[in-house]
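explain this:
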Amino acid sequence: MDDTSGGGSSSGSPSAPQASPDGGASPGPTGDAGAAIPIGTQAELDAWLQSGAYKSWACEAAAHDRRPGSGHSRNRICVNPALGQDKGAGPYPVGAASVKELYDGSGAVNGYAVYVKVKPGAAGDTWFWYERIGSSVVARSEGASLCVGCHSGAPRDHVFTASPQ
């Protein structure tokens, strides 16, 4: 199923430049130490994922079988400080982000599921969603309905795993 149209432009790109946590425009929300998560194009995001920059975040120690109700395969989740260290209630701050490494049957990473808080609020379209399995992109937009449909049942602001502990 391809869900690249929910909330973004017809190309699946975010509809406008994203706001950084300090309110200024940036190519994407900051994820760690002020570095922008490049969500502007698929190529930029894929290159960032391949660089492993997110591995400096808090990550689960090892891959695990999917959790009950999850539509994802065996996986490992990493969360940035804006997500993992926010123990409050209500919506997460702009810039909160998670990367889920998706594993194939042989134990190799064969995809990613990413979400990044791009604007204030608690609706599903306040998050940029991306999922790629192999070379197939199944979601890439703000408010991607495929992602929001499941994540709307999360305990807080569309997030099931806020801390990999």
Observations:
- The two ends are 31 Å apart (CA to CA).
- Residues 1-27 have pLDDT under 50 and may be disordered.
